[in-house]
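One-letter codes give the sequence; each number marks local geometry. A record appears below:


***
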Amino acid sequence: MQPLVTTVIPAFNAERFLAATIESALAQDHDPHEVIVVDDGSTDATPEIVGHFEGARYMRQENGGPAAARNAGTAAAAGEMVCCLDHDDLMPPGRLRRQVSYLLEHPTSGVVLGRQELLVEPGVEPPEWARRPRLPAPGSGSMEPNDNPFYPVCTALTRSWVFDRVGYFDLSFRIAADVDWLFRILDAGIEVGMLDEVFLVRRLHGANLTYDTAGNWSDMVRILKARIDRKRSGATPAQPGP
């Protein structure tokens, strides 16, 4: 029997993009699959949009930011494997089937990542991070001569026990909580698989939280310092709760 997968969609004032995002999740050909939309205190038509989809479970919380919404959805997930999908992004067809197959074929891997495709809306200037040289793959030490981040964390499919081991997303990071979470996974010695396949279509529309370049770098400096401090002290990664 195939494992249950939970897709968690954090949503805040998401009426512009949410329907297409939910549709892309529900269209996945992996079964069984549950979709949880966590409404992070929206004041627009987000609840009504979710209500149009019989296959999507709706949760609501006071506004706490995307990391808090991901944590709430992950804590409520029944799946053996979990992925998080931002409310303005899309899942390509076949993503979950391919990632589940990889994890079943690699029982020692806790996470599998892939590539992303950037979909820039007409007239929108891509953020600075999308224009600079690609970052190294985690743990690879190599640079890729391309212009998108390599194996972004938002493509992850994760075994649920990984959250038990390293904890949830740290709410003290406004933007890069997922990067901190991945570093804690790597520092805990958990195996991470990487596939050279597109697992996410990331829509850039000018209002993305990741357009805050200063906030991105501020969080990254804190994340890198925390990782260096862990390595120096030999401490196990902290385990933020949901």
User: Anything to note?
Assistant: The beta strands are 5-11, 33-40, 56-61, 81-84, 89-90, 109-120, 157-159, 191-204. Residues 5-233 form a domain with the Spore Coat Polysaccharide Biosynthesis Protein SpsA; Chain A fold (CATH 3.90.550.10). The chain is about 35% helix and 25% strand. The first helix runs from residue 18 to 26.
